[in-house]
């Protein structure tokens, strides 16, 4: 005869265990079914000695079993003891194969042939049994594994860990925790940062990299795996690394086949989608609840609260509010009228298009990382050319985009339910327009990391954001009165693709007409003249390439290749031709730009006999600058050697503006012809230094300067990760006496950089008091008049310039070589 209980809990992870302990404490008949021979299999499978965090810190824990940060072994011991003491009814080795029925009459069958009948079922089975696997050539080789049990089991191995989430980071750190094992570990992360990992884990990882205990490669994509090797595409090209073992921690997907067999509906057809749940965790099957990672909540504290809350709800406690209720209520205090948290969340979720595929539970977690703002009509949200990477969503009201800085009347509306700010999120470039509140509105602002986490964990959000970004970028670039409806057929078949550094996007002579919008990175355009590839132009993020084939009978007239690893949107040529036919103003705009680029081609063609002079020099100089990092720069210092008199005023002025330490080295760096690139910060589009700073001391200012604040701890990560050697680790010298002290009393050095002997003498007295910190060019942020090095140059030899302003001379071919 089958066992009959009020509540059957399937899975004894944190959520299931907490649910069972609550049922036991309330005296409800229950059974906790676990398919293995031990409790908490999810935690049990963590690597030995793993330190488990109890985040979010501000969230209250509701559970009859304790949970505080500690080692895997300590936590499992506490849970085993408390489960036994609470009298939880446990059935081990209960591998559930079928759940049928509905509220009040469920039947649960196990692989061993046992049957349990229950009034309510709580699914707490997690997702770890369904890991995402490597889908590249060689992805099935035997040295690839998807879990790590004991980091101490490996000795003297080259180990690649793939995945920048918490599991991957913790595995990588565990493998190098014991230096006696002599493992050489490299962690690979697809993106430029770690949006899905806890902040403490990211800091520990970067600290380990700074100490030389392991290597970290960001923006790295696996191309293939061989016996003993892994082949990668990274920001600057391709890399081949030796590896004895690959540990792939790339996340996991819900066990959809089994869950759907229980009758549970999912939010979408996407493999990574989660079940559709009510605010009380009830699925589409009445009486069947889903909690834990399977509900989209991976954090242990969240999971334990869910298990507790579900049992309370089943027991009739309809007044219980979620544990995060006070935190969310605080965020909504700016809204007038005393808004109920659940209703406000649901309002925002249904109003904003990109949120509609989130479950109410995911929405709660997402809003914990976001802020709600109320703007009045006419308020400015942000300005054109501001640096900002947060994403804005319009919950109510509307905003206007001032698309022409010279004509404030030219405005494009963005309505209720839409988003804006996606350009900074994707490319890291400045805001490309000013945004004004068109009417009173409620906006949700999401920091970049939280937005990236949302995009990476909910595929439907990624799809929506990509589409919106593509539409906006096309309307921004081409203007001409285009609307979303006009672009529908163009966008429907659009494809987003990544182009590795130096890889060819368009090849001269090819027979296609597709157009490419550059989302991030930059491209160079070259034309083959004789046996030489001649540089034509540089194209940065926010522009496009490929249109010339539309007017040249499908024949590509030049080669386009990535200056750095870039992301582009591919638009099918036939759709774009149809759009131009329907929009004469668009065609006219493209024709005008085509004429400019054709003029450049004609100029280059006219230089066939003189490549040792003007055109050859121009192309070689441009290629030189791209090799020096101009491909990812937003602002760089260049010196015209034909004008420079070697006075060093630039260095002196820099030192005077920065406590006696010059942030540039005029003589260092490379020179081509008369153009010198001194050692000074390029203020990269995606700064290498910024992504690897444990205390988050590196920032980008509203005017674009990448600078280091006073919270620098001197770890040296930024110095190691900067590919251009522009960051120094320095002890801040003592403040120099004023000019009059020097003039009247001879105290201290005179104007200019502090004399080394004086600095050395003063620092000797302060030894140990002033640790070294990182210093770099900040473009004289906050100093009136701008960069001191440029202002101090008596001949105009020093200039600060964006690469596109310097390299793209296509509209003035007569000045090439000037």
Explain what you see.
The chain has 5 domains: 198 residues, FAD/NAD(P)-binding domain; 105 residues, FAD/NAD(P)-binding domain (3-Layer(bba) Sandwich); 144 residues, Jelly Rolls (Sandwich); 117 residues, Jelly Rolls (Sandwich); 196 residues, no CATH class. The C terminus is likely disordered. The protein is built from 23 helices and 41 strands. Helix 4 packs parallel to helix 5 and helix 15 crosses helix 16. The protein is 29% helix and 23% strand.
CA gyration radius, whole angstroms: 30 Å
- DSSP strand tally: 41
The 3D shape can be described as: globular
CATH fold-type name of the largest domain: FAD/NAD(P)-binding domain
In whole angstroms, the N-to-C terminal distance is 94 Å
Mind telling me the CATH superfamily name of the largest domain? FAD/NAD(P)-binding domain
Q: Based on helices, strands and strand pairing, what is the structural class?
A: alpha+beta
Helix content: 25-40%
The pLDDT mean sits at: 81
Individual helix count: 23
The low-confidence runs, each spanning 5 or more residues with pLDDT under 50, are 610-615, 808-818
State the major sheet. 7 strands, mixed
Strand share of the residues? 15-25%
Domain unit count: 5
CATH architecture of the largest domain: 3-Layer(bba) Sandwich
CATH class of the largest domain: Alpha Beta
């Amino acid at each position: 005869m089958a066992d009959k209980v009020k509540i059957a809990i399937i899975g004894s992870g944190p959520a299931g265990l907490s649910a069972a302990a609550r049922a036991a404490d309330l005296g409800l008949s229950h059974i906790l079914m676990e398919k293995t021979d031990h409790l908490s299999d999810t935690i049990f499978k963590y690597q030995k000695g793993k330190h488990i965090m109890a985040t979010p810190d501000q969230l209250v824990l509701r559970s009859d079993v304790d949970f505080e940060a500690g080692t895997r072994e300590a936590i499992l011991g506490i849970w085993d003891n408390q489960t036994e003491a609470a009298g939880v009814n446990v059935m081990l080795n209960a591998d559930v194969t079928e759940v049928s029925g509905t509220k009040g009459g469920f039947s649960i069958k196990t692989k061993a042939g046992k049957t349990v009948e229950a009034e309510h079922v709580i699914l707490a089975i997690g997702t770890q049994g369904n890991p995402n696997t490597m889908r590249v050539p060689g992805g099935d080789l035997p040295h690839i594994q998807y879990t790590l049990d004991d980091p101490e089991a490996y000795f003297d191995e080259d180990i690649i860990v793939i995945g920048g989430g918490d599991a991957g980071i913790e595995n990588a750190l565990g493998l190098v925790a014991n230096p006696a094992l002599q493992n050489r570990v490299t962690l690979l992360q697809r993106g430029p940062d770690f949006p899905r990992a806890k902040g403490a884990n990211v800091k520990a990882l970067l600290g380990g990299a700074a100490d030389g205990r392991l290597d970290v490669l960001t923006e790295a994509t696996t191309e293939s795996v061989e016996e003993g090797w892994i082949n990668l595409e990274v920001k600057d090209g391709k890399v081949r690394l030796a590896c004895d073992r690959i540990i792939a921690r790339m996340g996991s997907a819900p066990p959809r086949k089994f869950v759907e067999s229980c009758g549970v509906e999912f939010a979408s057809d996407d493999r990574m989608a989660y079940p559709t749940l009510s605010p009380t965790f009830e699925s589409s099957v009445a009486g069947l609840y889903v909690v834990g990672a399977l509900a989209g909540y991976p954090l242990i504290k969240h999971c334990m609260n869910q298990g507790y809350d579900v049992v309370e709800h089943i027991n009739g406690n309809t007044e219980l509010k979620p544990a995060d209720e006070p935190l969310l209520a605080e965020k909504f205090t700016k809204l007038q009228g005393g808004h109920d948290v659940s209703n406000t969340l649901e309002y925002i979720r249904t109003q904003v298009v990109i949120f509609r595929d989130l479950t109410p539970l995911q929405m709660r977690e997402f809003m914990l990382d976001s802020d709600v703002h109320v703007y009045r009509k006419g308020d400015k949200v942000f300005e054109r050319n501001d640096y900002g990477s947060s994403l804005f969503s319009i919950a109510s009201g509307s905003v206007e985009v001032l698309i022409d800085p010279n004509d404030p009347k030219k405005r494009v509306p963005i309505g209720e339910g839409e988003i804006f700010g996606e350009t900074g999120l994707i490319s890291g470039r400045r805001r490309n327009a000013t945004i004004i509140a068109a009417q009173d509105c409620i906006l949700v602002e999401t920091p970049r990391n939280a937005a990236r986490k949302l995009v990476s964990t909910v595929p439907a959000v990624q799809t929506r954001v990509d589409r919106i970004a593509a539409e906006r970028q096309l309307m921004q670039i081409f203007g001409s009165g285009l609307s979303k409806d006009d672009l529908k057929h163009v966008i429907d078949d659009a494809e987003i693709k990544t182009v590795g550094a130096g890889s060819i996007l368009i090849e001269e002579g090819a027979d296609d007409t597709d157009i490419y919008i550059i989302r991030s990175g930059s491209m160079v355009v070259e034309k083959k003249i004789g046996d030489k590839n001649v540089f034509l132009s540089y194209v940065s993020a926010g522009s496009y390439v490929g249109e010339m084939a539309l007017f040249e009978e499908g024949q590509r007239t030049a080669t386009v290749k990535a200056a750095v690893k870039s992301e582009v949107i591919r638009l099918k040529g036939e759709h774009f031709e149809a759009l131009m036919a329907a929009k004469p103003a668009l065609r006219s705009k493209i024709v005008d730009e085509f004429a400019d680029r054709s003029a450049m081609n004609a100029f280059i063609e006219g230089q066939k006999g003189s490549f040792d002079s003007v055109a050859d020099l121009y192309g070689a100089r441009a290629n030189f600058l791209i090799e020096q990092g101009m491909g990812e720069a937003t602002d760089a210092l260049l010196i015209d050697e034909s004008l420079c008199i070697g006075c060093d005023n630039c260095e002196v002025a820099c030192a005077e503006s920065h406590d006696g330490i010059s942030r540039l080295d005029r003589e260092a760096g490379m020179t081509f012809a008369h153009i010198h690139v001194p050692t000074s910060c390029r203020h990269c589009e995606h700064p290498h230094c910024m992504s690897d700073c444990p205390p988050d001391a590196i920032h980008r200012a509203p005017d674009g300067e990448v600078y280091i604040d006073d919270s620098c701890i001197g770890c040296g990560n930024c110095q190691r990760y900067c590919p251009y050697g522009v960051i120094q680790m320095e002890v801040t010298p003592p403040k120099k006496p004023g000019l009059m002290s020097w003039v009247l009393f001879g105290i201290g050095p005179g104007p200019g950089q502090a004399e080394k002997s004086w600095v050395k003498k003063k620092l000797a007295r302060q030894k140990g008091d002033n640790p070294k910190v990182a210093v770099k060019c900040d473009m004289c942020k906050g100093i009136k008049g701008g960069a001191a090095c440029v202002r101090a140059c008596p001949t105009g030899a020093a200039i600060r310039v964006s690469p596109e302003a310097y390299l793209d001379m296509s509209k003035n071919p007569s000045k090439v070589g000037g």
